[in-house]
Design goal:
The structure is a single chain. This protein has helices at about 15-25, 30-50, 60-75, 85-100. The chain is globular, with a radius of gyration of 14 Å. Residues about 1-5 have low confidence and may be disordered. The longest helix has 24 residues, at about 30-50. It is mainly α. Helix content is about 60%, strand content about 0%.
């Protein structure tokens, strides 16, 4: 598994970053928590639109990062990629979410 100490810190493109991102999400529970958090983010956005309550949007980082960071700190036991590569990591969250939905990344052991 890739670790922060042996991986390059600069990526030239998202396609270079994504394999690193997936390696940092090798733990099944961590991936599941990311997936749940992403669904909840979509739910918060939908609820905000349906109710017209824009204040709900403040919950996006709480549910999105909250679930992801629990996965990293307690299951994956690594620092979230967000701390070093925030934009690529955010994109990685949604690409992995899509890849889980289409079966390219598994949520099964």
């Amino acid at each position: 598994m890739a670790t922060e100490s042996n991986v390059q810190t600069q990526f030239q493109s998202f396609s270079e970053f994504y394999p690193y991102y997936l390696a940092e999400h090798a733990n099944l529970t961590c991936r599941k928590l990311h997936f749940i958090g992403s669904w909840l983010v979509l739910g918060v956005i939908a609820s905000s639109i349906m109710t017209g309550n824009l204040a709900l949007l403040w919950l996006i980082p709480v549910v999105g990062y909250g679930f992801a960071w629990v996965g990293h700190f307690f299951y994956e036991k690594n620092r979230p990629a967000t701390f070093r590569h925030p934009l690529y990591s955010l994109l990685g969250d949604w690409v992995m979410f899509k890849d889980i939905l289409i079966g390219k990344v598994s949520l099964r052991a």
